[in-house]
Amino acid sequence: MIKIFRRVRQNLILENKTSKYFKYAIGEIILVVIGILIALSINNWNEKRKTHNQLQGYLNGISKNIQSDTIEINIIKALRERQNLAAKDYVKYTYMDSMPIQLVPKIAPILGEQYLNVNQSGFDALKNSGYIANLQGTALEDAIYDYYSYYEEIHESETSLNNFIENMEAGLYDGEYEDVVIVYKVFASLKSPNEFSKKDLQKALKQLYNNSKMLGIMQRVASEEYFFVYDSLKTKGQKIVTLIKKEFDND
């Protein structure tokens, strides 16, 4: 192509058609510029498409994380609700003479640590990639940060509750409350209730239901009716999934 243009220019010069030569040269320059602009435009389109596809990959990862988070949220919410009811039953029985051993398996898990753990791998990958800058100022960016910051607030509340339980639980195993261990052995299937006399078992149960530290734990758990935060987190997560789907529906 270049050789053809050069030959045309040479012929124009030889024919002493200078004005036509300059017009042709200008036209040739314009064509070259247009070609360069087209090439740059195609390159920019390819880069944008590449960025778009990579961003979509990161956001799809977040969407999958949130869908698995929803399962975990449902599990922890149901657990908290059961423990809240069991704790309320415990508090109720502290004012009664009847102390059912059947309640022990329901309250014992309260002493273990429970946390909601959401999968943040997709969010971390997006932040580390730098592609999150492409979402700056969008509703999707706001929704993503809102979801994970709200989760951190929930985690702080759970940490506060778990630390309180752990500190109170430490006093359950000193000499003053040694009879309580009998109840735990029964619950943990380390021993059968039949291995204890009815008198010893009732004594242990009475100690359990009149234990100030255990009562403190159960009163705290009975008052922790913040189940709505789990539903709020699910709602925030669903908003992200919807926005991501909408973002790439036209692809």
UniProtKB/TrEMBL annotation:
Keyword line: Membrane, Transmembrane, Transmembrane helix
Domain of life: Bacteria
InterPro entries cross-referenced by the UniProt entry: DUF6090
Claim: Membrane is one of the keywords in the record: yes
A Pfam cross-reference name: DUF6090
Regions that span the bilayer: 21-42
Name the UniProt record assigns to this protein: Uncharacterized protein
Organism whose genome encodes this protein: Pontimicrobium aquaticum
Lineage: Bacteria, Pseudomonadati, Bacteroidota, Flavobacteriia, Flavobacteriales
